From TrEMBL:
Domain of life: Eukaryota
EC number of the protein: 2.7.11.1
Keywords: ATP-binding, Kinase, Nucleotide-binding, Serine/threonine-protein kinase, Transferase
Positions contributing to ATP binding: 30
Catalysed reactions, as listed in the record: L-threonyl-[protein] + ATP = O-phospho-L-threonyl-[protein] + ADP + H(+); L-seryl-[protein] + ATP = O-phospho-L-seryl-[protein] + ADP + H(+)
Residues covered by the Protein kinase domain: 1-119
PROSITE patterns with a match to the protein in the record: PROTEIN_KINASE_ATP, PROTEIN_KINASE_DOM
Enzyme class: transferase
GO BP, sorted A to Z: regulation of mRNA processing; spliceosomal complex assembly
InterPro entries: Kinase-like_dom_sf, Prot_kinase_dom, Protein_kinase_ATP_BS, SRPK
UniProt name for this protein: non-specific serine/threonine protein kinase
GO MF annotation list: ATP binding; protein serine/threonine kinase activity
Amino acid sequence: KLGRGQFSTVWLATDTSVSLQNPNKAIALKILKSSPNYQEAAQEEVDLLNEIMKKPEASIGKRNIVLPIDSFEIYGPHGTHVCIALELMGKSLLSLIRHADPGGLSLGVVKKITFQMAL
């Protein structure tokens, strides 16, 4: 398990469908909760990520967003789960904060992260 939030859990997974040059590539698999209350939000997230993917590579901020590799649905005993396969990235912001020096993140790091999030 890589992490979890209010609406989903993110798991370390293996993409077995990738090319022969990069077999068994590690990815992040975000599985959203099956509650009907979350279904619309899950589909909106998939739609938004797909719209961002259509933007030119040079688009402001596009390089700061983890783009989906694929999305699909799985059916379980408690309902339908939307799943989003994502490129495996580095540490989360929460992890960086937790492992920072006792004084917290440096002002330079905070500025860089804030700038990237604002784009």
